[in-house]
Amino acid sequence: MYFDVSKHKIPNLLIIAALAYGIYEFKLVFLISFMISLVVLFPLFLIRAFGGGDIKLTALLVGYLGINKAIDCMLLALIVAAIISLIKLIKTKQLFMRFQYFLVYIRQIFQEKKFTYYYIKERDGYSNTICFSIPIGIAYFVIYICQYIGGE
Length: 152
What we know:
This protein is mainly alpha-helical. 79% of the residues lie in helices and 0% in strands. The protein has one domain (2-150). The two termini are 27 Å apart.
C-alpha cells in the first residue's frame, strides 16, 4: 500500500515475490487462477478503470483466496472504494462534476460504439483517483478476521 499511495505504483518485484510464494505454496492451481484472473480483469486495465498493479494484486487475491472468497473480498473492496471516493468527492466539491464526466463518458461510448480511456494520467492527474490497494487491504483484513472468527 505504501508504494501505491506514495508513487501510484505497486512494484513488480513485490508482485513477483508474492507470485513466486503462491506458486511454491499452492502449485499449479495458484498459477492457473492468477493467469485466468489477469485475462478476465485485463479489459478494466485497457480502459484505465484500474491500474496494472491493481489488476495484478486482485489476481494474486484470487490465487491465494480462491475464487469465492476473492469475489467476496473484491465486492467488499469496491464498497470501501466507493465510500472513500464519495467522501473524497464531497470533500473536494467535485461530486457533481465527476458524475457529469462519467455520464459524458458513457454517452461517448454508445455514440462512437467503441471503448476509450476513462482515465488519462496526463489529462486527469491524481487528484480524482484513489489507491485501490487500500480498499483491497481493508477488505482482505475484514475477510481474514471473519474467517478467523467464523473458524473457516
